[in-house]
Amino acid sequence: MSQDLKPHAIATFEAERKPSAAEREWEEKTLRPTLEKSGERPADFTTISSYPIRRLYTAADLPDWNPERDLGYPGQPPYTRGIHSTMYRGKLWTMRQFAGFGTAEDTNARFRYLLSQGQTGLSVAFDLPTLMGYDSDHALSEGEVGKCGVAISSLADMEVLFDQIPLGDVTTSMTINSPAAAIWAMYLAVAEKQGADWKKISGTIQNDILKEYIAQKEYIYPPEPSMRLVIDTFEFGAKHTPKFNSISVSGYHIREAGSTAIQELAFTLRDGIEYVEWGMRRGLDVDDFVPRISFFFNAHSDFFEEIAKYRAARRIWYKTMRERFGAKSARAWALRFHTQTAGCSLTAQQPYNNVVRTALQALAAVMGGTQSLHTNSLDEAWALPTEFAATLALRTQQIIAHESGVTNTGDPLGGSYFVEALTDEVERGAWDYIEKIDALGGMVAAIERAYPQREIAEAAYKYQMAVDSKEKIVVGVNNYVSQEKPLDTLQIDETVATRQADRLRKLRADRSNDEVERRLKALRKAAAGTENTMPYLYEAVKAYATLGEICDAMRDVFGIYEEVAVT
Amino acid sequence: MPDKKIRVLIAKPGLDGHDRGAKIIARALRDAGMEVIYTGLRQTPEMIASAAVQEDVDVIGLSILSGAHNTLCPRLMNLLREKGMNDVTVLIGGIIPEADIPALRKAGIAEVFLPGTTTQSIVDFIRNRIVAPAHGL
Questions:
Q1: Interface test with A, best of B8, B9, B12, B19 (most A CBs within 10 A)
Q2: How many other C-beta atoms can be found within 10 angstroms of the C-beta atom of residue A451?
Q3: pLDDT in tens, A14-51
Q4: By Cβ atoms counted within 10 A, which residue in A75, A98, A151, A460 is the most buried?
């Protein structure tokens, strides 16, 4: 990286700091007498990531700050102020509530309800068997069908999921990773049946396998073949679905696993770098495929730390794309991201407090310039949300959008001494990690050595100790505790598993099993070779091969991954 | 005679990969002087029961966040009884609706720890429960 693009020096330490004469006078005449007389609260003045925060930020904390270079303007490099010139005056963020439970019918009804309430995009939560590539009637699926999301075992289920929802008009995000290519093939098949033009449909598949090894742990195959499948979708998407995001590089789960804000940022961007490197090795042009890479961050409770994180993310990605990969298109430079408020910050105790937490977190995401947002529901420390709770979460976004006034201007906090200094520090912290992972030989190598996994486990343990010792206060949990009556939560119908099993039995009886066998054989052959697997997956799903059969075919070729657990 | 350490198996049954809680508990119990074995992810009740016998543990701590507890826990308890592990203390931590707790206790689960539990209270619970003289604690 060239010198001028490095984050400028920051006066982190008191000794390097050069306060102005006026600031020194304030310290002497105003601050010191107060400190001597009454001092400060015995609180821990650090972010939720334990990052120390100064008493006051002034020009002395931005000694080399050059607003034209470091801040710029919205829609222009280095994108600190956001990626659109008009920001939310031009277009609000997409309000995209993650939903899914029970059977495809159950979730289809929830989707249509949410769209009728003003939601502007869909986001599918799949159940654990689907995420792990097992059919609903597999032995390991017992007890899990339809619990954490919707059960999708074949194209037949996918057709029901999007029944009466025009895929040409809505954008759909799908939280699916290891089986992403197969699930995406099902979505494309539904779009085709509806007569929607692939060139125009838009949405996102999460498809971020690296963070699965790092944090979320829903992997099937080892890293190498998994990365190959991801690049297959990049290549296929660049050709056939120019508006579909072929990946959502996710820090969300890294943060939920207990990382700090800086770790979330650094590991996510380094994952992004890894995907770009693999894509280029396939021979793809950065300016073609990188614009279809989107990101996904957490919105945790420390308001300013989160805003600094989003601003720093855009700056790092811009510098990386331009300097490291030589991207020429502004669409490759500009980091677009989805945000979800922090599930791990929700408390089971006094659940109504979660509405307030979520509103503050969502506000940080908006002030940080997010492109789309999911707000969690108040009851999610207990169960998947009820319709009442999910509606309130959506209303929270609508209040921020239409009543708070923060959407009237781009990057409303730009130029704040504190926000600019913190943005610089978060950026610098992330670069340190990115350099460390480069030195380890990249992210796949770092994962194999459990480096990010260990860093996250360490941070998670430290945070838990800080909460246990009340060094960090969690309202309603370790302070301000009160008795309360239990919440009414969503009950998942226990007949989901049997209904799914019946449907699968019928599917296997009605389809042409010879055709399925032929398609799976062709898929196995493609997987064992170097051809792009997407066309083969597409043909297999169209023949109504089940997700389990498809994933098993690839398990035969790729093998499975088992991690060495770090505790 | 030296004190025998309390032996704990921390297990993640089911398909869920959210292991933050399991790993924190494993480390906290280890820091409290217990011998902790962590199974890793995606253990069937059969695998957990076999590991418990093989490792001769005093306590099994299950971490479940996926809603599969009503299926997985009774099955594990039956398997433990079949293997003659009647004395083992089985604990659950995770996302467990309060309405499900009575049935889990009836199945033989000693305690259910809900979100917000401190690691110290789990350490204390185990120490109070495991007081067999053979363990010298």
A1: B19
A2: 19
A3: 778 999 999 999 999 999 999 999 999 988 899 999 99
A4: A151
Task: Flag whether residue B100 sits within 8 Å of chain A, measured between CB atoms.
Answer: no
Contact A60, A18 (CB under 8 A): yes
Which phi-psi region, left, alpha or beta, contains residue A191 (left: φ > 0; alpha: ψ -120 to 50)? alpha
User: Hey, are the CB atoms on B40 and A565 less than 8 Å from each other?
Assistant: yes
Kindly state the tokens that stand for A355.
Answer: 């509405």
Tell if the CB–CB gap between B18 and A217 is shorter than 8 Å: yes
Count Cβ atoms below 10 Å from residue A222 Cβ, excluding itself.
16
CATH topology (fold) of B7-131: Rossmann fold (3.40.50)
Answer yes or no: do A468 and B116 touch at CB < 8 A.
Answer: no
Counted residue by residue, chain B has a size of: 137
User: How far is it, in rounded angstroms, from Cα A248 to Cα A206?
Assistant: 5
* Interchain pair B42, A464: CB under 8 A: no
From chain B, the residues in CB contact with A144 under 8 A are 14-16, 66-68
Q: Name the β-bridge partners of B43.
A: B13
Q: Average pLDDT of B57-70?
A: 94
H-only helix segments in A412-533: 417-439, 443-448, 451-468, 496-510, 513-528
Chain B residue numbers touching A212 (CB-CB < 8 A): 17
Contact (CB<8Å) A383/B98: no
Q: Measured between alpha carbons, how far is A78 from A67 in angstroms, rounded to an integer?
A: 11
- What is the per-residue pLDDT across A209-227, written as a single tens digit (0 to 9) for each? 999 999 999 999 999 999 9
- pLDDT-flagged residues of chain A (< 70): 1-13
Q: Note the pLDDT tens digit of each residue in B121-130.
A: 999 999 999 9
**CA dist., res. A192 & res. B117, Å (int):** 50
User: Complex ipTM, two decimals?
Assistant: 0.91
Residue B21, burial from CB neighbour count under 10 angstroms (0-12, 13-18, 19+):
buried
